[in-house]
């Protein structure tokens, strides 16, 4: 017999009568009380992102009521739950079994990100922390589901303490709502954005790398304001407040979406921003849906499949696949071959470049802005992002799609601050430490090289395949390789065997040539061929 079969007799996994609910609450000790988790909904147990997702608690798609399962427990609930402050049933999963579930997944698959929701007992928090120590993942998102809308503390004090002392220090981001933030800080009152900032800083001192305090319950606020503290800066993220009863599960969705974006390679700030926009759009799409008799209904997570309007209006910011064929211009080379910057950019795009960087080391500021504006028109008309090398001021002046900065340029964190969350920031990195810093600074991708010797950039050390691979393995962000790459060696670069190496950035193999279009096509066909074999 499988080890835990006897624990789950048929038909017992949901729909507990009220008496048994109370027993469960008592079993947990302390003042654990089943109830709703309020404005931002709830999720149970850990979920996984990055090639694997488990149970409705783990994804964008959960939470229309009925039964939900995460490794922590099985619960039954519907839209009336929050009125009564009761779930219809909760069935805790034994700690040993949670441990086995975690081992089963973490030992087998390359899990990039784990997201936790409600964790019902100290024991399960311990099991989770031990499992994550044994099988470290790239990022941990902790949604500290512990306080209901009505203010009920759903976690026993001992669970709360375990959360704070064991789980939070392991988290890359923790996402409390106002009441959870208050509970974590001993019940202080949080009423303003300033209070949220102070709370985020105080929770940060427990050890998580980032704290997102969600302001859905902020009194007298016409916007939906969340505050992200990254250890240095408090980012105030403003969105539209959607007036609707269908807010059940927004917190769970937000945290799951953050996890999914992190697994795709986004930085924390980007992931939070995308998740916030996702939740806002989903709420807006679903605001008039009527499902269930209770006061708080579910919302529709699949709105993008159903409504073109939500896709059409979307300015998609950064797609790591755009790094495939990254054309980096060089004014000297273009001058040598008698072509203008706009001719060069048009030719490389027509040849198949997927992103363009203007690297104009000799242009004065006026010339740079003017040529950037002209190139931007060409890029926009082809749907190809245009980045500016080094010069954040030029990027701002012409509203380019972003910048690429190196280790001696403006720090990526400053570039991000100046450009805001919607622009692309790339950073040159030669070491794992630089790659980690780029992620912390809110970059979208890193450029790594020179892979081969190059004459295009003076005094640039060559990393070789080993150096490139080391940086890729350490990087949480997607990587583009650069330095001496051409159609003859691009395949060998792309086949070093790392998932987050997304493409090659090339200067002379495209622009120090007679026909930019032909050279770009040649490189493109190699890369497309490699992508097919890598799939
Ligand atoms: C995609 C990409 N990767 C690396 C670099 C190099 O940037 P940096 O180190 O700042 O050197 P310069 O290009 O400014 O000389 C890049 N430009 N693009
Ligand atoms: C800008 C830069 N950064 C690292 S290597 C390099 C030059 C790449 O040029 P090329 O593709 O001609 O080798
Ligand atoms: Mg630079």
TrEMBL record:
Keywords: ATP-binding, Kinase, Magnesium, Metal-binding, Multifunctional enzyme, Nucleotide-binding, Thiamine biosynthesis, Transferase. GO terms for biological process: thiamine biosynthetic process; thiamine diphosphate biosynthetic process. Pathway: Cofactor biosynthesis; thiamine diphosphate biosynthesis; thiamine phosphate from 4-amino-2-methyl-5-diphosphomethylpyrimidine and 4-methyl-5-(2-phosphoethyl)-thiazole: step 1/1. Gene3D superfamilies: 3.40.1190.20, Aldolase class I. GO terms for cellular component: chloroplast. Its EC number is 2.5.1.3. It catalyses: 4-methyl-5-(2-phosphooxyethyl)-thiazole + 4-amino-2-methyl-5-(diphosphooxymethyl)pyrimidine + H(+) = thiamine phosphate + diphosphate; 2-[(2R,5Z)-2-carboxy-4-methylthiazol-5(2H)-ylidene]ethyl phosphate + 4-amino-2-methyl-5-(diphosphooxymethyl)pyrimidine + 2 H(+) = thiamine phosphate + CO2 + diphosphate; 2-(2-carboxy-4-methylthiazol-5-yl)ethyl phosphate + 4-amino-2-methyl-5-(diphosphooxymethyl)pyrimidine + 2 H(+) = thiamine phosphate + CO2 + diphosphate. Residues 1-86 are annotated as: Disordered. It comes from the Eukaryota. Residues 86-295 form the Pyridoxamine kinase/Phosphomethylpyrimidine kinase domain. Residues 7-21 have a biased composition (Low complexity). It holds the Pfam family Phos_pyr_kin. SUPFAM superfamilies: Ribokinase-like, Thiamin phosphate synthase. GO terms for molecular function: ATP binding; hydroxymethylpyrimidine kinase activity; metal ion binding; phosphomethylpyrimidine kinase activity; thiamine-phosphate diphosphorylase activity. Its cofactor is Mg(2+). Residues 325-510 form the Thiamine phosphate synthase/TenI domain. This is thiamine phosphate synthase. It comes from Asparagus officinalis (Garden asparagus).
């Amino acid at each position: 017999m499988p080890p835990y079969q006897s624990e789950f007799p048929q038909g017992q996994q949901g729909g507990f009568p009220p008496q048994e609910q109370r027993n469960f609450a008592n079993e947990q000790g302390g003042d654990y009380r089943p109830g709703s988790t309020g404005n931002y909904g709830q999720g149970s147990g850990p979920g996984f992102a990055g090639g694997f997702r488990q149970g409705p608690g783990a994804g964008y798609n959960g939470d229309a009521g009925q039964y939900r399962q995460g490794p922590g427990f099985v619960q039954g609930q519907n839209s009336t739950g929050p009125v009564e402050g009761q779930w219809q049933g909760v069935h805790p999963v034994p700690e040993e079994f949670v441990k086995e579930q975690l081992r089963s997944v973490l030992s087998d698959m390359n899990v990039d990100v784990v997201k936790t929701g409600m964790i019902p007992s100290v024991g399960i928090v311990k099991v989770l922390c031990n499992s994550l120590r044994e099988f470290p993942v790239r990022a941990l998102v902790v949604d500290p589901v512990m306080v209901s809308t009505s203010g009920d503390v759903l976690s026993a004090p001992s669970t709360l303490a375990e959360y704070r002392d064991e789980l939070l220090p392991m988290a890359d981001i923790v996402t409390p709502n106002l009441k959870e933030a208050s509970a974590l800080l001993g019940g202080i009152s949080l009423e303003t954005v300033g209070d949220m900032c102070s709370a985020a800083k105080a929770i940060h001192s427990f050890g998580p790398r980032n704290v997102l305090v969600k302001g859905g319950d902020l009194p007298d606020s016409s916007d939906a304001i969340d505050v992200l503290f990254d250890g240095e800066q408090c980012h105030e993220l403003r969105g539209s407040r959607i007036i609707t009863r269908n807010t059940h599960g927004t917190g769970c969705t937000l945290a799951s979406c953050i996890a999914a974006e992190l697994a795709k390679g986004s930085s924390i700030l980007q992931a939070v921003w995308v998740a916030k926009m996702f939740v806002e759009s989903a709420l807006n799409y679903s605001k008039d849906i009527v499902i269930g008799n209770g006061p708080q209904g579910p919302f529709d997570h699949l709105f993008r499949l159903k409504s073109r309007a939500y896709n059409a209006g979307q300015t998609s910011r950064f797609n790591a696949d755009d790094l495939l064929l990254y054309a980096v211009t060089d004014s000297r080379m273009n001058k040598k071959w008698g072509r203008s910057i706009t001719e060069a950019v048009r030719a490389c795009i027509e040849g198949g470049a997927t992103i363009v960087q203007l690297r104009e080391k000799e242009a004065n500021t006026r010339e740079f802005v003017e040529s950037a504006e002209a190139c931007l028109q060409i890029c926009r008309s082809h749907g190809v992002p245009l980045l500016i090398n080094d010069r954040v001021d030029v990027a701002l002046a012409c509203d380019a799609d972003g910048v690429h900065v190196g280790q001696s340029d403006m720090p990526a964190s400053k570039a991000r601050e100046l450009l805001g969350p919607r622009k692309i920031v790339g950073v040159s990195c030669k070491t794992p430490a630089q790659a980690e810093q780029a992620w912390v600074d809110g970059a979208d991708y890193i450029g790594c090289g020179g892979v081969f010797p190059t004459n295009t950039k003076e005094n640039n050390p060559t990393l070789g395949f080993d150096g490139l691979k080391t940086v890729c393995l350490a990087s949480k962000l997607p990587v583009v390789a650069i330095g001496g790459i051409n159609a003859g060696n691009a395949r060998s670069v792309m086949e070093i065997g790392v998932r987050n190496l997304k493409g090659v950035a090339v200067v002379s193999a495209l622009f120090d040539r007679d026909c930019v279009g032909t050279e770009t096509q040649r490189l493109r066909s190699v890369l497309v061929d490699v992508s097919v074999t890598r799939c």
